[in-house]
Amino acid sequence: MTTHTAPVADQELSTPRTGTATDRSPQATTAVSGGSAGVDQPAADRGRTSIADVVVVKVAGIAAREIPGVHDMGGGLSRSIGAVRDRVPGGRPNVGRGVKVEVGERQTAIDLDLVVEYGVSVMDVAQDVRENVISAVERITGLEVVEVNVTINDVHLPDEHEPVHTGEARVE
């Protein structure tokens, strides 16, 4: 798991002191010396924020699916497994299918595998997906998106229908 860490000023924390019962005030148990963190600093500067890879994967997957012309995401095997998973009672769609990310402390790179609808401009869809993903990930996570690589794996034709499981036997 990689993390995003908010910048924290150099600080030196002393170890907690133990002493008599009269020494047990908050100032006596932990002291902050020489640093800029502490009660006199804004709350936003007190600590770190970690963002897991799965957060960026989900945000990017949802943002990519919002674009008209995107039929599905993922490669052939991934889509097949996802289709089965989606049909399982109680199963949820995997919004991260077709999304790979690398997340650093301040930056992320994203790779997307798409299936587009027949008749749409592949280049326009890729550009719109790239812009929407960058906007969503930067707005929601605060990470800088250094690149979004889009791979078009397939084109969904109008007469292609996903197999529908009716629950009935095909043969008697």
Question: How would you describe what is shown here?
Answer:
The protein is α+β, with helices and mostly antiparallel strands and 172 residues long. It contains 4 helices and 6 strands; from the N terminus they run βαβαβαββαβ. The strands form 2 sheets. Strands 3, 4, 5 and 6 form a 4-stranded mixed sheet that branches. The model is unreliable at 6-35 (pLDDT under 50).
**How many strands in all?**
6
Rg from C-alpha positions? 24 Å
* Share in β-strands: 15-25%
Helix content: 25-40%
Query: Can you write the helix and strand succession as a string?
Result: EHEHEHEEHE
Shape descriptor reads: elongated
Which structural class do you get from the secondary structure elements?
Answer: alpha+beta
Average pLDDT score: 76
What is the end-to-end distance?
51 Å
Tally the helices.
Answer: 4
Largest sheet: 4 strands, mixed
Low-confidence stretches: 6-35
